[in-house]
Amino acid sequence: MSSQTEHHNDVSGGPDTPLMKTEQAPATVAEHPFADPGLPEHQPRRQDIDERAAKRSERMVTLLFLTSILATVGFIVAFALIPVDEIVHIWPFGHVSALNFALGLTLGTALFCVGAGAVHWARTLMSDAEVPEERHAVGAPEPVKEDVLTEFRAGVRESGIGLGRRKLMRNTMIGAVGLVPLSGVVLLRDLGPAPGDKLFHTAWAEGVRIVNQNTGEPLRPEDITVGSLVQAAPATIDHHDEDFHAQIAKAAVMLVRIEPEDIKDPRSAEWGHEGILCYSKICTHIGCPATLYEQQTHHALCPCHQSTFDLADGARVLFGPAGHPLPQLRIGKDEEGYLVALADFEQPPGPSFWERG
What we know:
Layout: H1 2-12, H2 46-49, H3 51-81, E1 87-90, E2 94-97, H4 98-124, H5 142-159, H6 167-187, E3 210-212, E4 229-234, H7 244-251, E5 253-257, H8 266-271, E6 276-280, E7 292-294, E8 299-301, E9 308-310, E10 316-319, E11 328-329, E12 331-333, E13 339-341
Antiparallel strand pairs: 1-2, 3-4, 4-5, 5-6, 6-11, 7-8, 8-9, 9-10, 12-13
Helix pairs in contact: 3-4, 3-6, 4-6
Membrane topology: Multi-pass membrane protein
Transmembrane segments: 61-82, 102-122
Region (Disordered): 1-46
């Protein structure tokens, strides 16, 4: 029994057992256990030691840039000459738009060749020597700035971008990079012709009759009762016209009849006829129909964003995001007793734009 106890004590570790040595404090670890391996020895490329290989790389880069230039020119030519509705069969895509296919192929080639030429130039001809440099504060002192500029100039000379060697390659790169943006400029043609002064003119003119937009019948003063609102249009617009929607989008109006003593704006009253006022119904915010009329207050509300106009006070804006009053159409009565316009709108109807006064 005692021998088992003594053996147990030896295993558990007494003051003289070998196990106690493993519990001693480890040796101090060096502050920098890994030495800086430094940069590997620079291995020159074939183009660095063989001028013929360098010339081949230069020709390849030049060819890529020239291909990009030709592809950009092809893009512009295709955009100008290929009809929009022309369909061609191209395997394996099937029937596709000839214009879209040509534009995609030429633009993709132009962009790819610019990128491939730049990458090939950098990998084979520009200097690839690695230069280590310690980190420093963002605001570098003057000697550091001068060193950076010196290294930059050296890199420019070694890459062949400067005025020295490889001028053809440099010039083709400038041509390719300069021409590629023309593809985007040419696409602006699809925005359509400039509107010119079309926004300033509508179908209204002196003597044009005002017709009910729903029935197409010309309106007389007695057709407009006090407190009512009638949506109207010029008689010169035909629903079957090809550009009907473009015309009515500018010329749609609303007629309201207000007691003459309730009209606050003298100019507005003068432009009306017997208390009948004619305003553009196109909201001056984003063009919704502002035809929700409250006869007690003479307010017209646009349902889209709640712009509110006081029709008794020149249709000035009372509330909402609209930028200016609804333009008023000057009206009168012709010899047959029908309501007619006496002129076009003084201000273009609809939302604001830069050229609007």
